[in-house]
From TrEMBL:
<comment type="similarity">
    <text>Belongs to the ParA family.</text>
</comment>
<dbReference type="InterPro" id="IPR027417">
    <property type="entry name" value="P-loop_NTPase"/>
</dbReference>
<dbReference type="InterPro" id="IPR050678">
    <property type="entry name" value="DNA_Partitioning_ATPase"/>
</dbReference>
<protein>
    <submittedName>
        <fullName>ParA family protein</fullName>
    </submittedName>
</protein>
<dbReference type="Pfam" id="PF13614">
    <property type="entry name" value="AAA_31"/>
</dbReference>
<comment type="function">
    <text>May play a role in septum formation.</text>
</comment>
<dbReference type="InterPro" id="IPR025669">
    <property type="entry name" value="AAA_dom"/>
</dbReference>
<feature type="domain" description="AAA">
    <location>
        <begin position="11"/>
        <end position="190"/>
    </location>
</feature>
Amino acid sequence: NVEVSFPGRTRILTVSNQKGGVGKTTTTVNIAAAIASLGGRVMVIDLDPQGNASTALGIPHSADVPSIYDVLIDGFPLDDVVQQSPESELLFCAPSNIHLAGAEIELVTQVAREQRLKTAIDEYLASLAQPLDFILIDCPPSLGLLTINAFTAAEEVFLPIQCEYYALEGLSQLLGNVKMIQKHLNPKLHLSTILLTMYDGRTKLAQQVADEVREHFSQEVLRTMIPRSVRISEAPSFGQTVIAYDGNSAGAIAYREAAVEIVRRGSNGEEA
Ligand code: ADP
Ligand code: MG
């Protein structure tokens, strides 16, 4: 059993990488479930119209279910759409559904279009009797208004990197976007955490990519790496995170270790 403490302040991380298929959604739901297993109260905001994070957390999100779309476009309070995951009393999700696919365009003509998520989160946090320890936002791969809303609402950028060729491609673009958001919309935003995912230690390439990322971002990279694992990839088809699906598998153990590091490091990347 690992001892971690939660200081009672809500950390908001946006899980971002402008590449698709690098493990953003997988990392969001499994880190969230792992933090809940450590005793933290966590909410996942599913900002991807595909709704994969909602699915993996066992959250119904058909077209008639109130979703983050209603929050962003119709001004619903977040409280009206948040559901508890069947996995844990400490794990919550604001689901996405199919309507969110249109939100990118509908947001364009909205008042304060970049701040709508932030406003909803601020109101929600102020209304809670029991505070949340973490909010994790699962972003779509594109830099549209949904991602900009996440960057405006969060303090920390959490970047999963797949240990494969071209892993670093697009990274300078992401960092440039973070800078732009810092300057114009959210001075607090910073890259706090990098997690190496789908690591296959048998390949030289994976080791080289890991070394290169550690060289460039020694402060931000977690020590723990997430191995490539079939258990991780099959869990969502059971509407579960790997923490619930097979808690003793290598993937679940790695996600729990990564979660411990994140909780202990605090928002600036240094050990508490
Ligand atoms: P993104 O959200 O960045 O598009 P996903 O989290 O959906 O990426 O992951 C892309 C695919 O890779 C999914 O099919 C997922 O199940 C699989 N995957 C993610 N992490 C792992 C892992 N550690 N081992 C094996 N498969 C993984
Ligand atoms: Mg995704």
